[in-house]
């Protein structure tokens, strides 16, 4: 087990942020790419967020104020600069940045960067150590590559919508923008894998992710049921298991909302029977094995409902959890935002944001033991880091910088 | 830009799989950890899947046959061995494996590995270059760390269920097991980040992810609406935008199912008006700006529905896509499984599986340009790689191996 420090990294210290010293050029917008670069920033990278003069979509779109917090959630600890990538001088500045960068991230539609003359081949010629990471709806090489793609569209195309909802109700999308975020975190994954490989080969590479591919496996239970039952498989199972292979597994009504229970094993089910005061049913052949409970899932659900209906969701969850039964209240977003577990871990933090006031912002879900969390720096206004990057990092004079600003290049 | 090859990696070749030469000990089960190690295997790592003699949960649970395909989806290209980790000899074999490994992955409840004497501190003492990656529902250091956690429970606790469904219907879980898979792909991310850092520090580290943290940001739109509108924010928006900030954005009925349309910009909306034969409405003040359409979203939805209702979902999608409008049919899983785009990209493949017959299996969503896809090797039966690993890799004699098998250590 020899330590293999390369000369340029001789100063690396155990306990230091894992991406310290890594520079990222972030051309991405809305959720997908920005989530990837958010995780890079919180892992210690220097992220330069390059936006058009109108701001990236999420910053500029009004959405009746609803886009403001999402923008703040995903853009902490980044350095925003403006750059007109359609101008020759703007492209020249981007190329200078690329020479100093380790990673470039974009989630434009396929072909946009090539049409600007800034495609991965061109940029990796300038800097062969660059990792060029892109994400799109359908990927850049399949027959659907030019279809426009957004989270709702991808939820429809990937089968998420048709698999969500009650069997007797129309299909409904997942409230979470899972296709966007699955793509973003897979993009982060591909880039980190390539960054590791670069340490061994000395060369960067182009990596690519599609929202469609990134979502597929999350429907594994449902594909399993389709494979096992064929046309007898229901399209949607409400709050029941996606493969209808577990019982109890459902949401149950309480006095003030719902609770969910998911108890695959006999041990869990016996604990439930003790909690609800029906221990005599432990020997009932309709209930005393996993297979029997799955066959008689309606009986199981009625049994639980009869008991949950007269209690509050937190009372039910407390009693079940004390008995070791996987159970939880169906919480609303205000409850989640104030979750004591996440605040204790530091993955949620109250922050005084200069534009939004006191808000809850996420820190990274990636925890590196012994590495302290990087302090959250609230997202900055459009172009706030222009001078720091153009003058400080690229070495333009103050006069040149002023001229570039005046010409709306920067 | 100098090439910084370290001595032990001098043989690394551009175009080679990025994780070739990396060895992974996989103690994980069901979806979360196995998805992370599936991506490692497909990126070229050697993944040794360690299971108890009963098989990991997903392999052993019947689920009326519904668990068979999910197991096959996530366990391609892995080497399964059996090991009794409660026996001293079984622990000793695991320690020998750890000495040869780069990465260990587990998603037991917090504390399980420590109670076996195989916690991250103990294992990293044996091999300081080891990356020890773990994933759990709530993380290992917060007040909820001992709560049992599964996907349904985490969807309830994280606000996904309460945010999913039609406003006038009860809340419903997402059909996709997003909490499990978000955790799995974040775990992969954390491990790759640490693997990169190891190249610079020479030391491994312990990384950790929770399902709860990994899901939070995917509800960004919904948090945005709550922040902007406070108690006036609806808990669920059906198929409308989670922030109610975009229109048209909905699922619309057709003759044979639904289509979705998501068109934030004026350009898209004008294209829709041309497609549906109502170009005169381009000047209508109720419709001619993004803000106006959001205010009059019911009018917008009626306008589209009137036109979609008399057509099939594929007819509607074809016409909209030709006009550049983000639109898609709500597809069922059979349609998705046969998606021509994913099959063309190789991210879905037809495979003759020895146990399941001809099935569709996913390849990795992580694409490394210039690196050919590793051929998919179907998942193997329990313990299929016992001899290869115990004799071939660890150097036990055939006689010792037979004895270990006889004693049910292996």
UniProtKB/TrEMBL annotation, chains A, B:
Keyword field: Transferase
Keyword Transferase included in the entry's annotation: yes
Single annotated GO MF: CoA-transferase activity
SUPFAM superfamilies assigned: CoA-transferase family III (CaiB/BaiF) (SSF89796)
Domain of life: Bacteria
Signal peptide: none
The name this protein goes by in its record: L-carnitine dehydratase/bile acid-inducible protein F
Organism: Paracoccus denitrificans (strain Pd 1222)
């Amino acid at each position: 087990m020899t330590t293999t420090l390369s000369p340029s990294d001789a100063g690396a210290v155990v306990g230091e942020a894992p991406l310290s010293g890594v520079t990222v050029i972030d051309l991405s917008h809305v959720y997908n790419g920005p989530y990837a670069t958010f995780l890079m920033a919180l892992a210690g990278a220097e992220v330069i967020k390059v936006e058009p003069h109108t701001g990236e979509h999420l910053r500029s779109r009004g959405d009746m104020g609803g886009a403001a917090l999402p923008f703040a959630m995903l853009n902490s600890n980044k350095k925003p600069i403006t750059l007109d990538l359609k101008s020759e001088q703007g492209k020249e500045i981007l190329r200078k940045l690329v020479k100093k960068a380790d990673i470039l991230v974009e989630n434009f539609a396929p072909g946009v960067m090539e049409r600007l003359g800034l495609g991965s081949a061109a940029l990796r010629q300038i800097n062969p150590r660059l990792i060029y990471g892109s994400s799109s709806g359908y990927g850049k090489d399949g027959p659907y590559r030019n279809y426009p793609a957004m989270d709702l569209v991808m939820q429809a195309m990937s089968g998420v919508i048709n698999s969500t909802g009650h069997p007797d109700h129309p299909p409904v999308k997942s409230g979470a923008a899972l296709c966007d975020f699955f793509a973003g975190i897979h993009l982060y994954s591909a880039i980190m894998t390539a960054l590791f490989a670069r340490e061994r080969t000395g060369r960067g590479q182009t990596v690519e992710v599609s929202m469609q591919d990134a979502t597929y496996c999350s429907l594994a239970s449902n594909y399993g049921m389709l494979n096992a039952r064929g046309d007898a498989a229901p399209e949607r199972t409400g709050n029941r298991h996606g493969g209808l292979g577990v019982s109890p597994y459902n949401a149950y009504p309480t006095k003030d909302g719902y609770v969910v229970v998911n108890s695959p094993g006999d041990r869990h089910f016996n604990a439930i029977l003790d909690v609800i005061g029906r221990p005599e049913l432990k020997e009932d052949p309709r209930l005393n094995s996993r297979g029997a409970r799955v066959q008689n899932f309606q009986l199981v659900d009625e049994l639980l409902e009869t008991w949950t209906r007269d209690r509050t969701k937190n009372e039910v969850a407390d009693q079940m959890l004390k008995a070791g039964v996987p159970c939880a209240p169906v919480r609303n977003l205000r409850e989640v935002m104030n979750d004591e577990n996440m605040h204790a871990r530091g993955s949620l933090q109250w922050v005084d944001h200069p534009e939004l006031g006191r808000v809850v912002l996420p820190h990274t879900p990636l925890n590196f033991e012994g590495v302290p969390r990087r302090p959250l720096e609230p997202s900055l206004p459009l172009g706030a880091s222009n001078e720091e990057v153009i003058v400080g990092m690229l070495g333009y004079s103050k006069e040149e910088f002023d001229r570039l600003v005046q010409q709306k290049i920067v």
